[in-house]
Amino acid sequence: xxxxxxxxxxxxxxxxxxxxxxxxxxxxxxxxxxxxxxxxxxxxxxxxxxxxxxxxxxxxxxxxxxxxxxxxxxxxxxxxxxxxxxxxxxxxxxxxxxxxxxxxxxxxxxxxxxxxxxxxxxxxxxxxxxxxxxxxxxxxxxxxxxxxxxxxxxxxxxxxxxxxxxxxxxxxxxxxxxxxxxxxxxxxxxxxxxxxxxxxxxxxxxxxxxxxxxxxxxxxxxxxxxxxxxxxxxxxxxxxxxxxxxxxxxxxxxxxxxxxxxxxxxxxxxxxxxxxxxxxxxxxxxxxxxxxxxxxxxxxxxxxxxxxxxxxxxxxxxxxxxxxxxxxxxxxxxxxxxxxxxxxxxxxxxxxxxxxxxxxxxx
Amino acid sequence: xxxxxxxxxxxxxxxxxxxxxxxxxxxxxxxxxxxxxxxxxxxxxxxxxxxxxxxxxxxxxxxxxxxxxxxxxxxxxxxxxxxxxxxxxxxxxxxxxxxxxxxxxxxxxxxxxxxxxxxxxxxxxxxxxxxxxxxxxxxxxxxxxxxxxxxxxxxxxxxxxxxxxxxxxxxxxxxxxxxxxxxxxxxxxxxxxxxxxxxxxxxxxxxxxxxxxxxxxxxxxxxxxxxxxxxxxxxxxxxxxxxxxxxxxxxxxxxxxxxxxxxxxxxxxxxxxxxxxxxxxxxxxxxxxxxxxxxxxxxxxxxxxxxxxxxxxxxxxxxxxxxxxxxxxxxxxxxxxxxxxxxxxxxxxxxxxxxxxxxxxxx
DNA sequence: ATGAAAGCGCTAACAT
DNA sequence: ATGTTAGCGCTTTCAT
Lengths: 363, 363
Prior knowledge:
Mean pLDDT of chain A: 92
CATH topology of the largest domain in chain A: Rossmann fold
CATH superfamily of the largest domain in chain A: Response regulator
Radius of gyration of chain A: 28 Å
Number of domains of chain A: 3
Largest sheet of chain A: 6 strands, parallel
CATH class of the largest domain in chain A: Alpha Beta
Low-confidence stretches of chain A: 1-10
Oligomer: homodimer
Helix content of chain A: 40-55%
Number of helices of chain A: 13
């Protein structure tokens, strides 16, 4: 065993309390095992051309020193990080966690790991965090929803393979996307309610972001196709938004609510409860997204295969990392209506009403 | 303007599709601006001793090349990452997201950024992910719940300042903790229900992890103090666990449920609904944690100041990063009962019943 | 005000 | 099978 002058004991230096100060490096391990740095490197990577005896000595030395490889150093020289950056719009919406499950599964399966950040739905924070990912040299980027402009997105995609989950993003080189058809999905909700005899079907919107506008458009077209008068009330992709929107909608006489997303639908339910309205006897509610929690809440929803979306996205991304110059692919996932207890027959007094009759607050 | 032989145009090389290949480095920027690497480094850090003219040329060159600093390189030489690693037990439980809010707020306020990982409640994945954080040389570690053994935890805390959120962790050097008092919290729930006239109060447990056992102990002691017969049924910290546990409990005649956490309480609600039992008329339900969603769900709960817990944890951690050799501090946060619509008076036929009367399934 | 040089911890030829 | 060497991209003395 060889000891160096810098660390006479060959043991990692510790402070009086036993906390480590300077972390041991390859050099320390090599000195302690009496071999060269390169051999230690080889041994630690499990190379077969290291003599068993040396390997053992090296492993022992590393263990005794509490050696921990320095990823920043190895990434630097290897010019690879084997890391995928993931940005989540909002950690509070369980929907995104479910998408992330799929992403992680696929990423790990392919031997990468993830760096997770969130902008908390704030555009400035979002940009900062994504910049950090880029500076950390992630090899690909999964955006589980985002608030970037097309230009910003395009610049990012030029820098690193990127995939957007939750809405189709066309016309940007080096960028794939995975999404459901929100127009068709909203139509499913309307059709479902029409089948149940509803005509006063209102839409609680999710604001003016792309997804919300798509869902709104789907609702409007479906209503038109059924020759029904539409009513869109302002909401947001939050419980709060659903609460306020539902109040307005039932105030105007709605017997059914197509709510922009599941979180808002939960808020809508709260508003109806507060008003003493029964679900689905007085008012039916349909959400959008299909988060698992809704099963427990007995809420009808337009469901998307969330984990699968994440998986598909990560797979596309990794394919693009391997072959960067590939035309963009846009995957559409299947959207379906999951009927649960929050949607039921229209109240008898409201049924068979003149279809396109104007809305009024007197039901 | 100077051009180098490697990049004759001074522009970053791009593939036919316009995607970047080799990323520009300081060297490229320096060449394009006609100055040395060191000056570029200084300029980019905003050093005042760079001549305005040079600074401008450098900034322009960097911009034109789409230069992006390489964090791995700078971390390596600076021997600092300014990064805090955060491990979240389970991203699906919104409770953790709320704690994370506080962590991020404090971390950013102190000029650090976070690296977020999750083990999905799987111990093996958890260890792998935490190892990655260590290899990435995070300067501190926030564990928002974890499944590590005391030995593993102790080894980690020796390596890097660490703080555990959600339960008190004593006797480990270099480790702080932030938690509520789960025994006292469970007692609040029992007291609340007793005040409402309940005596057949069952506990749907959260399994055999530390938190669940504490809450269970609190329930048992409180029941004993009220001279009531306890009934603990097996559950888990999931909707599923709450569902199953609630079924058993009401089968045994419970009129009130103290459920191990909010997620399980939501599951319990679903079970009661499926049985046609009304809440709170037939059965009262109290959750634990205080996640925001419960407000919409009108669920009574034992609430903890989640974001604050995260904030306090991050602040403790950063203090420890600055002064590593500090005795451990353990912060206790206040726990309080938030009464909502899921808890109400005991059904009349069940009230005033012999307190310690044995449980039976006939109510 | 600017540049040259050394080196952070590691890997990967290339020798031997 | 093992050691030597030359960097990866960056920061930071230390000269000038």
